Amino acid sequence: MQQPYEGREFWKVIGKLVVFTLVAALGGFLIHMVLEAMFHTIGMGRWPTVQKIEKWAGWGFGLYFFVQLAAPGTKKPSLSKASVTTRTGLRVKTGVYNLATQEGDIRTIKITKPTHHTLIAGSPGSGKSFSLLEPILMQAMQQGKAGLVYDYKFPSLAPLVAATVPEETKDYYINFDDLRYSHRVNPIHPQVMTEMAYAKQFATTIVKNLAGNGGDSHAFFTNSAIGYLSLILWYLRTEQPQYCTLPHAILLAFQETEKVVELLERSRDSVIRTAVKPIRTALKSSNQLAAIEGTLQQGLQTLISAKLFWVLSGNDFRLDLNNPKDPKVLVLGNTAKLDEVYGPILALLATVALKEMNQPGRAESIFMVDEFPTIYIPRFETYPATCRSNGVEVIIGIQDFAQMEDRYGKTMKNAILGTLSNQFFGMQANLESAKYVSELWGKEEVQTISTSQGESNNGHRQGSNVGQSFSLTQRQRIQVQDVSNLRQGEFYGKLFQSDYSTFKAQIRPVNRPASPRWKPFQEVTEAMLEANFSRIEREIATLMQGFPPKPLEPLPPIPVPKPTPPPAPKPNRPEPDLADDF
Q1: Which of 82, 301, 310, 312 has the fewest CB atoms within 10 Å of its CB?
Q2: Domain ranges, ordered by start, for the chain
Q3: What pTM did the predictor assign?
Q4: What is the pLDDT of residues 392-406, one digit of tens each?
């Protein structure tokens, strides 16, 4: 509880008087000593009159020092400091995640409700990775949680996962840059894409990430491209499941549109035959068709890569990461130099994984995405509410809100931020982002103090009067420059149902454990890449000729996933200890 303002001011005044008295006494003593030494030098030190002069001069100068210190005239108004830290009245012994601090009013930051999701915002150099993302990730792994980690600066978080993941949880890595550190996965596997709606969702993710800015600048052609690609995906799933991979779909989209439409029209699936009719109509308008083909093919062209095709044409694991019978942690690796190429595929993998994770009866899990605006997940604002009830903890990191608004739009940005109840804000170089944080804390009334001194004359003697006046004024609890000037590792924060609702603290970084397991786990040669790419080309060419061969290794029947029974409660989860503080 904060000390009442009047009490604080009383002790401030007493402290000042003590200091002024000591300084005045010291000053008077020094004057006395100087005069005594001077008079002794000239042989007058023993004269009674001189001794009285020394004594009264010391006292006089001491009193003069005291008056000058205590009443220096009219002071400028001073403003009492606005409060940044707020206690809630709850006693919390421990949280699910606990972050030690180096200084500040709060000694340990306790995140008690991670399923109410977490936002971590800070410009480069703010320390959001080593102060927040890494400690939370380490504790989540130690608690045996499954999930997805988006490692934008791969390998940054990946070695940390390898060092802390428990033995009963499998860890997988996707990295298109260095295939020695990458597993293979099929995000559109027939067992995953069980409905036409999923095909459209996955096509939306790919096209909008390729288009950038959510693909809203050319909505008509973007939507048409989504429709065309979703039909190709669903056709492969229903008619040619052995070819139901993203590399096959990409190469099929590059075939002559007239022939692909004929292929779709011959489908046994009535949904495909009906949905392809608008594309058949578009064939009559060369301009419209060219625009649709250009939107899709121009974007997909960046994805034609032997490395991408290698990773996406295998199936080392399924994306049901929090399956209690087979818990997994998946690290998606990106790199800044090729994020526009890898981003759409990584966004698809994140979308599919989140869809699979957000199911009832699954194990506790995390969905951690640093540099969140570098990928676009359609309708992401709808996930946190249902993830909360399904035990999925969403943790996203951003540099500033302008990037997020540029990718998701203002409305969706605000909707997403409204679902993240635990929020951390580090140094912000962007003025608008710093202003957002300042306004988020709001205003409060603070007391302005004005001190003045005047001379009075009652007819007999003169004196001085010292007075103070107090007034209330509205002031931002956090100034914009306060946010811009935060040090590395220093954060303002808002917590949900913890002992503090708001705070400012310098978070202590943790020591990263050694990772002997982090090393290349396979070797992929150029010959292997070329052979895989050529095989996919041949299979699509055969498909377009109308004589698809039988698969060498037929896939098993495609079952509809059944709800998984709820897992048994884990005894090792550190439940937050909350109690009302009466």
Answers
A1: 301
A2: 11-70, 88-176+329-427+486-515, 186-315+529-547
A3: 0.79
A4: 999 999 999 999 999
